[in-house]
């Protein structure tokens, strides 16, 4: 049994030594990696600093009632100004002229009707009623 005992004890010793060596090497590499990452971050912060951050309560402040009212007023005002700027005033003028011309014609027609009825000896009220037909 000395051969088997010697073989197993040698194998155990060699495996344990190899395991501990690899474990130590891996831990050393992790430590080196962590140290390099910290050094890189420190150097990066020196030549390329991160942007300043506002506190979280300042980032998400809700607008007050007066600010909301001002914003709504400004949006409505800018919409109305845009509409006035884009409005076709020439077409509006032509339509207004046509409407006024039609009203003047109708008034003239009714006035002539009232005058003719008055000349015939009828009452003005009857002439107005007849002109409406």
- Give the proportion of residues in helices: over 70%
> What is the strand tally?
0
In the predicted model, the low-confidence regions spanning at least 5 consecutive residues are none
Order of helices and strands, N to C? HHHHH
- Report the oligomer: single chain
Could you say which structural class the secondary elements and strand pairing correspond to? mainly alpha
**What is the arithmetic mean of pLDDT?**
85
Shape type: rod-shaped
Q: What proportion of the residues form beta strands (DSSP E)?
A: under 5%
How many helices? The count is 5
Radius of gyration: 49 Å
Distance between the termini: 137 Å
Give the biggest sheet: none
What does this structure look like?
It contains five helices and no strands. It is mainly α. The protein starts with a helix and ends with a helix. The model has no long low-confidence stretch (mean pLDDT 85).
